[in-house]
């Protein structure tokens, strides 16, 4: 009786049992005689005479001739190897039927020998018609390939989540948008949660739970996931449950990931630009109101200096003209190549109040420094606000009042140049303390100095206000002069 190493001849009973199954046929191949006998199912599948192939048997070559030419070399190699090594085999291939159509089948054979280590003498097994299943699988594979191509073309990552097991199938694009290769990531839901930004977890969980329990038709959220380089990538995740059991329990969900980082950056930039425009409009409005408030103050100062109407008119025209020139200079003087000279900026701000005022009323001291656009705007608006308040309530509201402005360039951390500027008022009305509330102008200059990574402090002493401003200089710093202007 033939035997096979590692198997039992009783396994032949399995072939007989399979013969009773639908779409399954049996065969018996006597290797040494080159005779293969098959049952009626295989004869029909191969398009052979059932009597000859069943009772008499046919050589292996007759069966191989029925196999699709693209599959035949692979089948022949598998049979030769199985017989030579006395090893069982399993292989899928196509049979070409008499009408020219091909049918997918799977052959499983058990190779036997007369004694352990002897040559193969017999092969028994089954041939199973798998055409329907194979073509269904092929159709699914084609559709999946088409879907993958569409997703790839749209730059979308995809995910399919087995909710009960926690397993998730991600595609290459899903991993790639985070800087990973697919094999670097675990195919699990835990992997997704580890990449999710802590600030987005609760919101994403609420949205997902709402969909899983049926309160929302789909799941869609904009979240941040950690890139391999450590930065955060904005992603729009969209999905839905694709399979529920008879009780309505969600078992499988699928969806996509879209990289929306560029859009979020553009939205943030747009919001910042909008905020800057709104701030600029408020500043323009504030400047106009200050100008209207300054004109009466200039008229009052001029009226205290003369009783002659013509002279008074000349003084008012001169001071209002100086105010207009100052306003124009501080808004438009910035030169992108050379920057703004700080001393010229100070002179422009103080010019409206310097007309007909004694030179001792002002003191300006500091080295030659050029400011970049942001620094010049901040310094201009800060000095303008301080001068406006001084003209309305402080030292510049009385003829004997004095204002000194001095600055120096200090050395900060990592040799960063630091601008240190002081505004000092004396001989003005007595100071009773800081105002009870902060106006827009105060909030504005505080914001401007903070935008330069600087700081501002105020000392409301009884003999006058002192304001100290410091900020790092990013623009070019000129040569330091030995002496300042000394007066205006």
Automatic annotation (TrEMBL):
<keyword id="KW-0677">Repeat</keyword>
<keyword id="KW-0716">Sensory transduction</keyword>
<dbReference type="InterPro" id="IPR001610">
    <property type="entry name" value="PAC"/>
</dbReference>
<protein>
    <recommendedName>
        <fullName>histidine kinase</fullName>
        <ecNumber>2.7.13.3</ecNumber>
    </recommendedName>
</protein>
<dbReference type="InterPro" id="IPR011102">
    <property type="entry name" value="Sig_transdc_His_kinase_HWE"/>
</dbReference>
<keyword id="KW-0597">Phosphoprotein</keyword>
<keyword id="KW-0808">Transferase</keyword>
<keyword id="KW-0547">Nucleotide-binding</keyword>
<dbReference type="InterPro" id="IPR035965">
    <property type="entry name" value="PAS-like_dom_sf"/>
</dbReference>
<feature type="domain" description="PAC">
    <location>
        <begin position="89"/>
        <end position="142"/>
    </location>
</feature>
<keyword id="KW-0285">Flavoprotein</keyword>
<dbReference type="GO" id="GO:0004673">
    <property type="term" value="F:protein histidine kinase activity"/>
</dbReference>
<dbReference type="Pfam" id="PF07536">
    <property type="entry name" value="HWE_HK"/>
</dbReference>
<keyword id="KW-0157">Chromophore</keyword>
<dbReference type="InterPro" id="IPR000014">
    <property type="entry name" value="PAS"/>
</dbReference>
<keyword id="KW-0418">Kinase</keyword>
<dbReference type="GO" id="GO:0009881">
    <property type="term" value="F:photoreceptor activity"/>
</dbReference>
<feature type="domain" description="PAS">
    <location>
        <begin position="143"/>
        <end position="215"/>
    </location>
</feature>
<dbReference type="Pfam" id="PF08447">
    <property type="entry name" value="PAS_3"/>
</dbReference>
<keyword id="KW-0288">FMN</keyword>
<dbReference type="InterPro" id="IPR000700">
    <property type="entry name" value="PAS-assoc_C"/>
</dbReference>
<keyword id="KW-0067">ATP-binding</keyword>
<dbReference type="InterPro" id="IPR036890">
    <property type="entry name" value="HATPase_C_sf"/>
</dbReference>
<keyword id="KW-0600">Photoreceptor protein</keyword>
<dbReference type="GO" id="GO:0005524">
    <property type="term" value="F:ATP binding"/>
</dbReference>
<feature type="domain" description="PAC">
    <location>
        <begin position="219"/>
        <end position="272"/>
    </location>
</feature>
<dbReference type="InterPro" id="IPR013655">
    <property type="entry name" value="PAS_fold_3"/>
</dbReference>
<keyword id="KW-0675">Receptor</keyword>
<keyword id="KW-0843">Virulence</keyword>
